[in-house]
Amino acid sequence: MMAHKHGLTHDLETLIQTAPDRRRVLRWLSVGGAAALPLIGCGGGGDDGGTSAATTATGTTTTTTASTTASSGSCSVIPSETAGPYPGDGSNSNSSGIANALTLSGIVRSDIRSSIAGSSTTAPGVPLSVTLKLVNTGASCASLAGYAIYLWHCTRDGGYSMYSSGITGENYLRGVQVTDSNGEVTFSTVFPGCYSGRWPHIHFEVYASLAAATTTPASDQVRTSQLALPKTACDAVYASTGYSASVSNLAAISLASDNVFSDDSAALQMPTLTGNVSSGYAATLTVGL
């Protein structure tokens, strides 16, 4: 398996070329500051600088600015972020055409470490469980049951299944689940690596229902966001076997310089992490809608 080594520069180029709304990407660049402008035609990252319309848990449509969070009671609306150039949700293409994991048989699953639908390859790495709890910020942080969450992230080498060289035929580290009565889903996966130009992260999209996720992907998201992984855990994991490239990549990036998490909202996207390298980690985050 080959690593995804293109980094931020390649990601942004791919995002601009494949995004369903290129004007939205360019608008982000125009407000992202002079540091972002030289990257036009380069590689993928945040959409934090602009505004976006999002459907809230109450069914209303609101326009939010990525650097601002609406809060109610003890929970806050999680920032809206780009899905990046490798979502695999039907919104863009890979070398074989439209890349859509959401229509694959078996994509609704809790353990996303292995590929499905024609491959059984398992992605190696330190075990990680990710629990997301959806709450309604407009209703005293009530749990939101019956929503679908699509979660994906890179391998320990920094590559993305369905897109990166050597693993375009794989679809591991991608899966969908429906929130239970407590508004929760838990995915079993591996700790993602750190590739050049981005802070270690996990992507997810929230849909109002499983039907919305699997029959009309990339069009009816309630929210698209990312998790930022804590540095202490990253340092420990990247010192273990298989993560050597992540050590230097992490040393060259910070939350303050990352083009997604640098807007001071990363605290709402940083999960609580417990565990260790030998037994694995457990990440938990409350996601306000």
Q: Can you offer a commentary on this structure?
A:
- This protein has helices at 7-18, 22-31, 210-215, 231-238, 244-251, and strands at 51-55, 61-65, 71-72, 75-76, 89-94, 97-100, 127-136, 142-143, 148-152, 174-178, 184-190, 201-207, 221-228, 272-276, 280-288.
- Mean pLDDT is 81; it is low at 1-73.
- The protein has a single domain (48-288), classed as Sandwich (Protocatechuate 3,4-Dioxygenase, subunit A).
- The strands form five sheets. Strands 7, 8, 11, 14 and 15 form a five-stranded mixed sheet that branches. Strands 10-9-12-13 form a four-stranded antiparallel sheet.
- The termini are far apart.
- The longest helix has 12 residues, at 7-18.
- It is built from five helices and 15 strands.
- With 289 residues, the chain is an alpha+beta fold.
List keywords for this structure.
single chain, 289 residues, alpha+beta, Protocatechuate 3,4-Dioxygenase, subunit A, five-stranded mixed β-sheet, four-stranded antiparallel β-sheet, 5 helices, 15 strands, globular
Task: Give the arrangement of secondary structure elements.
Blueprint: H1 7-18, H2 22-31, E1 51-55, E2 61-65, E3 71-72, E4 75-76, E5 89-94, E6 97-100, E7 127-136, E8 142-143, E9 148-152, E10 174-178, E11 184-190, E12 201-207, H3 210-215, E13 221-228, H4 231-238, H5 244-251, E14 272-276, E15 280-288
Parallel strand pairs: 7-15
Antiparallel strand pairs: 1-2, 3-4, 5-6, 7-8, 7-11, 9-10, 9-12, 12-13, 14-15
Which class best fits the helix and strand makeup? alpha+beta
N-to-C terminal Cα separation, in Å?
37 Å
Low-confidence stretches: 1-73
How many strands, which pairing sense, and closed or not: the largest β-sheet?
A: 5 strands, mixed
Q: How many β-strands, per DSSP?
A: 15
Q: What overall geometry do the principal axes of the alpha carbons give? A: globular
CATH class: Mainly Beta
Return the average pLDDT rounded to an integer. Answer: 81
Query: And the CATH topology?
Result: Protocatechuate 3,4-Dioxygenase, subunit A
Q: Give the name of the CATH architecture.
A: Sandwich
